[in-house]
């Protein structure tokens, strides 16, 4: 009888070990498949981040914040860049408040509206691109600017266009 109990215990232990092995193998294969999927996703995400970083570098090429020569130009003239850039943009936005037609935008607004400058991008220490709109018509302008000897800001309209209306 003792022998039978040991034999049953032995067979039961073998079945238990076999069950544990099969179950562990299935769990391991499942985890391996998940890991392989995660690795492929990680590679795809790294490629996407790389493409986005390249796009950001390309888009920010003409940007005063990244143009060391333009920043040095202002610093050599004794200006603080953190104060000067917002000042120049604010002065351009203040022109939106002038009564009547906009002093820089060369187009008249439609139906009692007013052309307003919406977005300003400073390219370097001399050039600005801005877009304008009256809510119905919109366009873009290319400006030059300079700071005169008496610290006054002077804008000069160089080029402009109005998008066609459908």
Class of secondary structure makeup: alpha+beta
Cross-sheet strand order for the largest sheet = 1-2-3-4
Radius of gyration equals: 34 Å
How would you sum up the global shape? elongated
The count of helical stretches stands at 3
Mean pLDDT: 90
Q: Which regions are unreliable across 5 or more consecutive residues at pLDDT < 50?
A: none
Strand residue percentage: 15-25%
The topology string of helices and strands comes to HHHEEEE
User: How many E-type strands?
Assistant: 4
Helix content: 40-55%
How many domains? The number is: 2
The major beta sheet can be summarized as: 4 strands, antiparallel
Give an account of the 3D structure.
Strand 3 and strand 4 form a beta hairpin. It is elongated, with a radius of gyration of 34 Å. It has three helices and four strands; from the N terminus they run H-H-H-E-E-E-E. The mean pLDDT is 90. The protein has 166 residues and is of the alpha+beta class. The chain has two domains: 59 residues; 99 residues, no CATH class. It is 49% helix and 20% strand. The longest helix has 58 residues. A four-stranded antiparallel beta sheet has the order 1-2-3-4, covered by helices on one side.
């Amino acid at each position: 009888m003792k022998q039978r109990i040991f034999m049953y215990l032995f067979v039961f232990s073998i079945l238990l070990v076999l069950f544990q092995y099969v179950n562990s193998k299935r769990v391991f294969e499942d985890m391996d498949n998940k890991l392989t999927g995660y690795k492929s996703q990680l590679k795809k995400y790294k490629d996407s981040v790389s493409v986005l970083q390249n796009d950001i570098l390309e888009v920010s090429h003409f940007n005063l914040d990244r143009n060391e020569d333009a920043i040095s130009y202002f610093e050599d003239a004794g200006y603080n860049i953190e104060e000067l850039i917002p000042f120049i943009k604010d002065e351009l936005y203040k022109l939106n408040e002038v009564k009547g037609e906009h002093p820089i935008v060369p187009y008249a607004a439609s139906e009692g509206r007013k052309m307003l400058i919406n977005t300003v991008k400073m390219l370097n220490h001399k050039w600005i691109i801005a877009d304008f709109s009256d809510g119905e018509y919109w366009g873009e302008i290319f400006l030059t600017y300079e700071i005169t000897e008496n610290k006054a800001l002077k804008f000069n309209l160089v080029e402009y266009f109005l998008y066609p209306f459908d």
